[in-house]
Specification:
Elements (H helix, E strand, L loop, with lengths): L1 H25 L2 H4 L16 E5 L8 E6 L2 E6 L2 E4 L4 H10 L3 E6 L5 H4 L6 E7 L2 E14 L6 E8 L5 E5 L10 H4 L3 E4 L7 E5 L4 E7 L2 E4 L2 E2 L2 H12 E3 L15 E7 L2 E10 L5 E5 L7 E2 L19
Antiparallel strand pairs: 1-2, 1-6, 2-3, 3-4, 5-9, 6-7, 7-8, 8-9, 10-15, 11-12, 11-16, 12-13, 13-14, 16-17, 17-18, 18-19
């Protein structure tokens, strides 16, 4: 009986080994062993232009163009400054873009992984020569052994195969023109501020620091309120732009922030016909922002009552 059981076990083992061997034979060798490691091979120091067609903005082509040591942003006739660190972060992703595994071989699978014609397309150039061209698809998260963590699907533009690559990299590329732009409105070192001049059509006043105390005229200001205001102007970004705006005259609302050696920053606001405001500052001369964002106008152009005890 024992000898008979051993024969059964041996036969079962042979069957299992046969199944495993057949699976290795019939499984696509391209999926199994020919997965490329580097999806993009490029020296990012040589990159002079990156063109992106973001999935979230059909028909838009965003260009990041290097001029010397600086990058500028283009979209059709529009040009703008690029948000600090955005290009460097994106180039870092390009440098390390490697395949984890191949997930599909055929075009019919593109939509499953969102790497078809409506996906984000990225083209990378070095001195006019195209060095890379790929599609960025959907992202996901896996807890499977050997592939734990976040991943994104990638397809090289002229190939059918789809790969997974490590990380949520879609946000580095699927960005509109305005999302790439420098959103800096104000940067002010609080300890450097000695005086702020508020100029309004119906009233004007000056917030002045004397020794360690703040005053509006001859009346003491509230230290907590002044500190709160300085905190709001210390680091101010605005994300919605008014590119078609042409100012007529000086802004209706103005602030002039002054330090010991002179003006640190200025900001102004013009009224719009729809009841809104358009803002600009000395940090990006000629760039106009919408005042629709919460606190965009109210946080900056306050009255004396917002600073007094």
């Amino acid at each position: 009986m024992k000898k008979y059981s051993n024969k059964i076990l041996a036969l079962a083992l042979v069957v299992l080994l046969g199944i495993f061997a057949l699976s290795k034979i019939f499984r696509s060798p391209r999926l199994e062993s020919n997965v490329r490691k580097d999806l993009v091979k490029i020296d990012t120091a040589l990159v002079t232009e990156v063109r992106i067609q973001p999935a979230k903005a059909a028909g838009e082509v965003v260009k990041l163009v290097r001029e010397g040591y600086r990058w500028k942003l283009q979209e059709g006739p529009k040009e703008a400054k690029v948000e600090g660190g955005a290009v460097e972060s994106m180039l870092g992703v390009l440098k390390d873009l490697q395949a984890q595994r191949m997930v599909a071989l055929k075009k019919e699978k593109w939509d499953d992984f969102e790497v078809g014609e409506n996906s984000t397309r990225v083209s990378v150039f070095a001195d006019g020569e195209k060095e890379a061209d790929f599609r960025v698809g959907k992202t996901g998260f896996s807890q499977a052994q050997g592939m734990a963590g976040a991943f994104t699907y990638i397809r090289l533009a002229n190939e059918d195969e789809v790969y997974s690559t490590e990380g949520f990299i879609g946000s580095h590329f699927n960005r509109t023109f305005d999302e790439w732009r420098d959103k800096t409105f104000l940067r002010v070192a609080k300890d450097s501020v000695q005086r702020i001049e508020f100029t309004y059509p119906d009233s004007s006043f000056v917030l002045q620091k004397r020794d360690s105390l703040w005053y509006i005229g001859d009346r003491p200001a509230s230290r907590p309120k002044v500190e709160g205001y300085l905190e709001k102007i210390r680091f101010k970004n605005l994300a919605t732009f008014e590119d078609g705006f042409v100012p007529k005259g000086q802004p209706l609302l103005r602030i002039n922030i002054v330090g010991r050696s002179g003006t640190l920053a200025t900001a102004g606001a013009w009224p719009k016909g729809d009841g809104g405001w358009v803002l600009s500052s000395s940090f990006q001369d000629g760039v106009y922002f919408s005042g629709k964002a919460p606190g965009a106008v109210q946080d900056l152009f306050i009255g004396p009552g917002g600073l007094r005890e």
